[in-house]
Specification:
Helix content is 39%, strand content 19%. The strands form four sheets. Strands 12, 13, 14, 15, 16, 17 and 18 form a seven-stranded antiparallel beta sheet that branches. Strands 2-11-10-3-9 form a five-stranded mixed beta sheet. A four-stranded antiparallel beta sheet has the order 5-4-7-8. Helix 5 packs across helix 11, helix 14 packs antiparallel against helix 18 and helix 18 packs across helix 19. The termini are far apart.
């Protein structure tokens, strides 16, 4: 980082050099405070090579930090667009420096750090590169012009495909037999994802069989694509997390990456992950390779591979931009998560003429045009407490109509996200519907900021109980085991899991305040407090609640286990456990014993969570009381 000794030399420099250092010094400081989202504003100032190298190193460190926050901690501090701007500056400086290396230890290839190569990584025969972004019609027109200039007298054509908001993968076939799947990693080496991809399924393990036996099969083939989560699955999962007061996923990509990072391949299947294939790396021998992208996609179709929707365009740049806009509008209604449109030169001969740079191919770009935007007032920032104690900040804004929906609440992810933007209550903000129609605060209109505005104070204690907070990664957690906010979310989760309807958080809060319930087993004693229940809920609602509670005694045992909210034990895991154990009572008896645990088939992290719950005083009491009341006749 630049220090005082660098600044001390400014009077000895030429004017333009001194100005350049001041620009870089200011940008460096802004970057490390999370405020630099724009590349240097004055491109006319020639930065000295040493200063460019310093800035490049700073950008590498900052991009790696944001990758870690996004993928490993699930606590982003900047939006994808801000990330792309930092990345674009890094790529420009890297190209001018003539560097072909990647940052040490990390990848900055564009939100694809997931599963970076470890000791057991394998090399891609052909590197997996990122795509250069274009953000407006002018950028797309310039790309079109470069293609025409490089391929005179040819008919290159352009293929348009969705830019999936997923995780890049490579499938390897040898002599038509599926052998392995790799993550993108750092672009050169990737981690083994074979078990996860087999669980996801949707692709053939053998090529050249049946009706497609006449289609040539390469000796060695790398097929490139993405693993993604459909929009409906993403929304459903986030709704479940939000209702439980847990941290939601920022994008469908973050949900897909979390599932692939799980040590349990079946998690990918349970989360509803899908695969799509749209590119190739190594193709040996190359003579059998299709001579266009459309011919390649037809070959994939012959092999029964999952394909993206695509359009072939021929013609002028204006027509290309119109075709991109039409596809973007069509995809907005589809159940696939996208964050743009990919434009590829169709003809393989023209692709080869254009070549490939150090970071991305010159024959393809990703169009990432802004989504619908609007301005509104940030009325309030509040932190909601989840059943695990996680504090999630939410912005409540004046209702805003965007893209056919009303936006009133916007997730702010983490306290760091608030600090990086200096978000304040009363601010005028610009909101964009990004990716899967997710509202994001893109900018604060500081020229409209009230004169008496003050920085938002991040809570130092739990807003629900006043207890101490603990910071884990980029997130805040309430440490109190008796937090009423956590208890309310836990009881609501249990009630929903076992089918006790009519008990929303407001009614549950009233029961908690009246000391009628404190844990899950207390639901089954509410029939002894009929007068108080009628008073708090009304006779009709109280009658329905008691009927639901009585019916819940005979629900499948896995629903009771799921309702306890133990980390890692959702519907599928609870089902598998109860298929082995048979009843909730058997689980309570088996927990203290070590024999038989292998038959539960739990990932180590989930098993440790279950054992920790069973050994804690509150967990042991909950299990024993529930076992007793569920074994009794109503």
């Amino acid at each position: 980082m630049l220090t005082g000794r660098h600044c001390g030399k400014l009077p000895l420099m030429k004017t333009n050099q001194a100005a350049a250092v001041l620009v870089v010094l200011a940008l460096s400081l802004a970057t490390f405070t999370g405020l630099a989202a724009e590349p240097p504003g004055d491109a006319s100032i020639p930065l000295p090579a040493a200063v460019e190298a310093e800035r490049l190193a700073l950008l590498e460190a900052e991009l790696a930090r944001h990758d870690t926050l996004y993928f490993r901690e699930g606590a982003p501090e900047i939006t994808d667009r801000e990330y792309d701007l930092l990345k674009a500056e890094w790529e420009e400086l890297r190209a001018r420096q003539g560097s072909r290396s990647t940052p040490s230890g990390e990848s900055v290839s564009g939100r694809q750090l997931l599963l970076d190569p470890g000791e057991n990584s394998l090399r891609h025969r052909v590197p997996m590169l990122s795509l250069k972004k274009v953000h407006d019609a002018g950028d797309l027109r310039a790309f079109h012009g470069r293609v025409e200039e490089a391929c005179p007298g040819m008919d290159p054509g352009f293929v348009l495909e969705p830019k999936y908001d997923g995780v890049a993968v490579s499938l390897i076939y040898k002599n038509g037999v599926f052998c392995r799947a790799l993550s993108r990693g750092d672009g050169n080496r990737g981690e083994d994802l074979t078990g996860h991809l087999l669980a996801v399924g949707g692709f053939p393990l053998l090529l050249g069989t049946g009706k497609d036996a006449e289609v040539p099969v390469p000796e060695h083939l790398e097929l490139r694509g993405e693993v993604f989560v459909p929009k409906a699955v993403f929304r459903r999962r986030n709704l479940e997390l939000e209702e439980g007061g847990e941290a939601t996923y920022a994008t469908p990509r973050s949900l897909a990456s979390g599932s692939l990072q799980s040590g349990d391949p079946d998690e990918a299947k349970r989360r509803g992950l899908r695969l799509v294939l749209f590119g190739a790396g190594a193709w040996e021998p190359p003579v059998s390779r299709p001579q266009s992208q459309t011919a390649f996609l037809a070959r994939l179709k012959d092999w029964k591979m999952p394909l993206p929707p695509h359009v072939l365009h021929r013609g002028e740049a204006a027509g290309l931009h119109a075709a991109v806009s039409r596809m973007a509008e069509t995809l907005s209604e589809a159940d696939i998560p996208t964050d743009g449109i990919v434009v590829k030169v169709n003809a393989l001969a023209c692709q080869r003429q254009l070549g490939t740079g150090s970071a991305f191919p010159n024959w393809s770009v990703a169009c990432k045009f802004p989504g619908p935007t609007g301005e509104t007032r940030l009325a309030q920032i509040r932190f909601q407490v989840g059943r695990s104690g996680l504090l999630t900040p939410v912005a409540e804004v004046d209702p805003l109509e965007l893209g056919g929906r009303t936006v009133a609440r916007i997730s702010l992810y983490t306290a760091g996200y608030i600090r990086a933007r200096d978000l304040r209550e009363g601010d005028r903000v610009r909101v964009e519907l990004a990716g899967d129609s997710i509202p994001v605060i893109e900018d604060v209109l500081k020229e409209h900021r009230l004169h008496d505005s003050v920085p938002f104070a991040i809570p130092e204690t739990c807003p629900a109980c006043g207890g101490l907070l603990e910071k884990r990664g980029g997130r805040l957690y309430c440490r109190s085991p008796d937090c009423p906010g956590k208890r309310l979310k836990q009881l609501h989760h249990f009630a929903r899991s076992v089918g006790i309807g009519q008990l929303g958080e407001a009614r549950l809060g009233a029961l908690l305040e009246a000391s009628l319930i404190d844990g899950p087993a207390d639901f089954y004693h509410l029939n002894h407090h009929l007068e108080e229940l009628n008073h708090l809920l009304g006779e009709g609602i109280a009658k329905q609640v008691l009927e639901d509670i009585s019916a819940s005694r005979s629900v499948e045992p896995w629903r009771v286990l799921k309702g306890l909210g133990i980390p890692g034990i959702g519907s599928a895991t609870a089902r598998r456990m109860m298929e082995v154990l048979g009843s909730f009572g058997n689980l309570v008896e088996a927990l203290p014993r070590e024999d038989g645990r292998a038959t539960w088939n739990l990932p180590e992290k989930t098993l440790l969570s279950l054992l920790a719950f069973g050994r804690s005083e509150s967990g042991k009491d909950t299990l024993e009381r529930l076992s007793r009341v569920l074994s009794q006749k109503p």
